[in-house]
Amino acid sequence: MLLSVTAFVLCLSILLMTMAKLSGGNTFVAPTAFAQTTAQRPKRSQPQIPQTKTSSARQVIPSDKAQVEKITDSLYRIGKALVDTRARTVTCTGEINMDSGAIEYLAVAPLGKTHESLLRIDVRPLHLQVALLLLGLEPKNVLERQGEKKMPQGAPIEIRVRWRDKAGKQRDVRAEELIAELPGSKPMARHDWLFTGSRIVKEGFEADLEKSLVAVWHDPAALLDNPLPGGGSNAYIVNARTVPKRGTPVEFVLHAVEIAPSKPVSAGNSPEVEKRK
Question: Considering its fold, how many domains does the chain have in total?
């Protein structure tokens, strides 16, 4: 069932108000957005490209004609992302991409850096960002380059991964349980991931270009990042004791975490970190 006019405005107002017109350098931004600055992105596997950073809580989003479908009063589909505004979750499907080895990403989209990502999730990064914005989450991308020591910022999100084992029993774990930290193989500390949001570069929406969804090693191109100190040291591997066989189908569930409005979330004060203090 297609959205009614009212529901359409509810679901797409963020997207329509933040559509970026990349040609000619003109950009439409949300009312809360501030002035943009331009910087050069360091080389990775391709030539440097200029980028536009924003200090606003809501990221600029390039123009897109994503199909939005209303399923129930609280359930919507944006591309392949299923949004539940009542449960405050976004659910996508994918598969285990690596069951051993070093990783730099928890998740990438198809055609992303699959040689260093634990999960491959079947979703367009732009659609996932819009889905998270629909939940009222505020991204804040303060990173400038991959692997920098600066701690990321943004709204906290619990990530869970679900699959069925060989006996057909459903497994449901926090994403951190699938990752181990070097030296040794100690499981990654329990924490909430941060919705940093991706950036606009000259060629378009950076997460769409890189296909990066959730970074374990800090990456400003990704939509979500790791707030732990290890995020700047690139010292994570697959937790082979927990991760199922490569190719296992999974559900990838992002759940918005409620926080006190007076206490902005950063690396040191996410709800999960607070519990351990």
Answer: 1
In a domain, 45, yes or no: no
Give the pLDDT confidence score for residue 270 in this predicted structure.
55
Length, in residues, of the chain = 277
Per-residue pLDDT of 247-266, as tens digits, reads 999 999 999 998 766 555 55
Q: Residue 131 is inside which H or E element, if any?
A: helix 125-134
CA pair distance 90, 107, nearest whole angstrom: 14
Tell me if 14 is assigned to some domain.
no
Does some domain include residue 128? Answer: yes
Tokens of 245: 């066989």
The candidate with the shortest Cα–Cα distance to 62, out of 110, 21, 5, 7, is 21
Q: pTM here?
A: 0.75
- Sheet containing strand 179-181, edge to edge, reads 186-187, 179-181, 236-238
Cα separation, 17 vs 223, in Å, equals 19
Greater confidence (152 vs 54) lies with 152
Distance CA 145, CA 262 (A): 29
Average pLDDT, stretch 57-66? 43
Higher-pLDDT residue of 106, 20: 106
Give me the helices (H) in 135-180, please: none
Is there a domain that residue 146 lies in?
A: yes
Q: Provide the residue range defining the domain that includes 271.
A: 81-275
Tell me, what's the pLDDT at 39?
Answer: 36
